[in-house]
Amino acid sequence: MQKLKHVEEQRGAGRAQILETIRKAGNIARIDIAKETLVSPATVTAITSELMDAGLIEEITPEGPRQKAKRGRPRVALKIRGDAYPVAGIKVARESVSVLIVDFEGNELVAWDSDLKDPMMSPDVLAQEIYEAVKGACDAIDMHPSELSAVGVGLAGLIDAPRSFVHWSPSLNSRNVDIGAAFSQKFECPVLVENDANLVAKAEQLFGLGRNVSNFVVITIEHGVGMGIVIDDKIYRGSRGCGAEFGHAKVQLEGALCQCGQRGCLEAYIGDYALLREANAVNIGHPIADLPSLWELAQTGNPPAQSIFDRAGRMFAMGLANVVNIFDPEVIILAGHRAAFDHLNLVGIMEELKGHVVKVDAPLTEIKAHQWGDKMWAKGAAAYALDGFSALKIREMSISAA
Amino acid sequence: MQKLKHVEEQRGAGRAQILETIRKAGNIARIDIAKETLVSPATVTAITSELMDAGLIEEITPEGPRQKAKRGRPRVALKIRGDAYPVAGIKVARESVSVLIVDFEGNELVAWDSDLKDPMMSPDVLAQEIYEAVKGACDAIDMHPSELSAVGVGLAGLIDAPRSFVHWSPSLNSRNVDIGAAFSQKFECPVLVENDANLVAKAEQLFGLGRNVSNFVVITIEHGVGMGIVIDDKIYRGSRGCGAEFGHAKVQLEGALCQCGQRGCLEAYIGDYALLREANAVNIGHPIADLPSLWELAQTGNPPAQSIFDRAGRMFAMGLANVVNIFDPEVIILAGHRAAFDHLNLVGIMEELKGHVVKVDAPLTEIKAHQWGDKMWAKGAAAYALDGFSALKIREMSISAA
Q1: Which of A81, A96, A114 is a domain's end point?
Q2: Which helix (H) or strand (E) holds B28?
Q3: Which end of chain B, C or N, has fewer beta carbons within 10 A?
Q4: Which of B38, B168, B261 sits opposite A39 (nearest CB)?
């Protein structure tokens, strides 16, 4: 039995590898799959037949003029079966839920946004809000949510993705939530949850500045500070789903008090609330309600306002330098949907960074800002749902074979 | 040609995979290799035949009584050819060079230490010192250095291992050294150089506390502070060989001056020199020459001495917490050959750490101290040489086939 299980695991890995090869290639002949993967032609034939039976892939006969002119049997290629399994990607932000529904090839079917009543809620209310947003998106294309094959959800916070477990999220009013259970009350299909910054990393890898980069780091600034790490082309999650906590890396022993209750976190020096706290603790001229007002004040030359942004920028540079000192990634992508990095003074940060990064006579890690809309987060979530659904389907095939 | 090159790359990857499978298994039949790797039996037969021709593996007929009693053809297995290619592993410390010569199966043939005249030298002198130490080890077993197939060298500093290039090392009196060129003046075989903390990580993975752990971090404290990172069972080097610079991660903006010339590095708070600098800047009773004297003074209850160790321990805890916040590894191994961690008060550090690590209701990353001798460093270097030599040999086979 042990032996059989091992063989089935290998078979599952082979199915995943071949499906990924087809997805990457767009379309590809069986013999080329065998060459790409080193899997024997006989096994490729067997596995691709299983994948076809499962409806994941289909045969096509490329119809180019060159092919037509050739004699003999037409060359048959395999591709992902686009209309097979539609999935939805979701990004939960403070004020809204963004939904993107794509077909199994990743083509967009519909994008949809809906407002959130409250930024923080119970797991059941969150599941309901997401369900309603998905319903809205489905209605727009005459589809029913029950037709979805999988849903990928990006949440801020500490997420143990393989267990669909939320250690903590700013969107939830309780800790240690089995969010999978809450979702399964609303959705018939599997719902895969993941840290939202990891989904941005996934989107950057597939569609953005992370294409063809094996090792990179994404930093997101919204209300909090997020981080996604890609190592050897894979999202790095840490052993408990608690890695990549850039915002809560400590930049000063016994430093400023953070929202999380600890002292000296980077977020307590660069988050919106940290800057407003400083501004409102001194007589800066008038009460400051939001970051744009404080930024405007700094632009007019107000010294305390300038000092606040100056320190925030220097602390941010020190945090980035530590990412370079530890990871030495090829690129750090600062990803955000607002002018989130303007006030952090990127030019100054690059100069500051040089004083903190271990000195070598080699070009410094590139730091690139990438501004995008909320759709990009949802796009990452949809790609995650496609991956997750394929993995589930392949596991299902293995179980039925065993 | 492009196509041919691609196929040869795949073939090389197949050879490496099969060699690794054999090394891990100890001995294994061809059919089991095919099952393990999903490579077709025909390709396994072809590749293992190439590996035998190259002298990397050999056939054995297991001679257990059960086999003998069976009828028919005896089952033939493959194993690494032990006496094929001896290699040497070297660790360069401040005062000595340690050498370990092993056979191609990794069995120790001889261990040897020799003193260094000077901790810092020119590349040519370093190559000469290493050559003499290797010669000493070889003499002890009636071997000549020219019989070695590869040498692995562990150096402190910033090493771009794939290029055999040293950005900076405390053992060298110049920066930006093509150390490969210096070594090739002395040795006939390939010399592979690597950051020494990465070799400790390799040794922990093969022989120590990192066995069966996919994601772990090793921290070494000698004169400086080193770090090795293992992610998904592989050493993570960073894009320029400048990752894992734990000692130069910044723990305070505009903080204490470090040996490296920057301010606020962790090393500037926990390195020997940092503690002695503090001790000798105040009237602590009498001049302090070394760390053991300062530690003894603290043990007698001297408040400034206690305060110095207290802050060092807290800064170290904050640095470790940031490793947990960013990597969330399963284990952090504190590896050293002296009582290097005694004065950093591990019990206190674990308590302190809890206040800096993002709070979840899940067990904290384990932190384990592992004391070992210099032989362990050299053992890591030897394992690195075995890997490196196998890779070179396989590349050679691909070039001759192309």
Answers
A1: A81
A2: strand B27-29
A3: N
A4: B38
Q: Name the minimum distance, in Å, from the CA of B21 to any CA of chain A.
A: 14
Domain match, A261 and A147 both: no
| B90 bridge partner residues | B99, B153
Kindly determine whether residue B39 and residue A43, on different chains, have CB atoms separated by under 8 Å.
no
Residue B130 located in a structural domain: yes
Strands A165-168 and A216-221: unpaired
pLDDT, mean of residues B27-44: 89
Place of tokens 């399964």: A184
Domain count, chain A: 3
- Distance between CA atoms of B274 and B256, rounded to whole angstroms? 9
Question: B322 with B329: CB under 8 angstroms?
Answer: no
Cβ <8 Å between B43 and A38: yes
The position carrying tokens 């079917």 is: A109
For position B185, which CATH number holds?
A: 3.30.420.40
User: Of the candidates B10, B238, B325, which has its C-beta nearest A248's C-beta?
Assistant: B325
Domain with A295 in it: 245-329+338-371
Chain B neighbors of A269, CB-CB under 8 A: none
The answer to whether residue B116 is domain-embedded is: yes
Q: What is the pLDDT of residues A43-97, one digit of tens each?
A: 899 999 999 999 999 999 866 545 444 555 667 899 999 888 999 999 998 889 9
Cβ–Cβ gap A250/B318 under 8 Å:
yes
Give yes or no: residues B382 and B272 share one domain.
no
Question: Which of A239, A328, A365 shows the shortest C-beta gap to B328?
Answer: A239
- Examine the domain organization and report whether B287 and B343 are in the same domain: yes
Would B346 be classed as within a structural domain? Answer: yes
CB contact under 8 A, A325 and B7: no
Question: Is ipTM strictly over 0.85?
Answer: no
Residue A16 located in a structural domain: yes
Q: What is the pTM of this model?
A: 0.83
> How many CB atoms neighbour CB A300 within 10 A?
9
Contacts of B20 (CB under 8 A, 6+ apart): none
Burial class (CB in 10 A: 0-12, 13-18, 19+), A180: middle
DSSP B255: -
Determine, for residues A40 and B36 on separate chains, whether the beta-carbon distance falls below 8 Å.
no
**Whether A219 contacts A246, CB under 8 Å:** yes
Query: Reading across the β-sheet that carries A225-231, which strands appear in turn?
Result: A234-236, A225-231, A216-221, A331-336, A366-371
